[in-house]
Amino acid sequence: MTEQTPQAAEEVEAAAAERMKALLMEAGALGIKGLRKNASEETIKLAIQRKRDEMIQEAAMKAAAERKRNEKPIETVQARILKAGDGKISAGIHIPGRGDVYHERGTVLTLERSIANGLEARGYVEIAENADDE
Length: 134
Description:
It contains three helices and five strands. By secondary structure, the chain is an alpha+beta fold.
């Protein structure tokens, strides 16, 4: 191992000062404030990484909100249960010891268009006449 000369020590200090300056510039560009004057390189790197992670998460949340805004609303229609559908379309209720509750003939339900179309094709429901047809 070689002995460190004063010139080599100055070069090491200059390199460390350059790294610190670059880190502080990056932290400033990201809007990180409140770093201690004597903060270590590790502390600054950690603050930068946290800020980047925060920015990524914020961007993902904005993108999800934008996708949600752009989604088409679910189209619903009114459908009346017919004789074939009597007792075959679940009301989504279960009574312990007795079983599920089913809708009766003549009941008018609000259903998603796609579900109503499928039930109508099987003869279980009739989509109301005032609903918009596709």
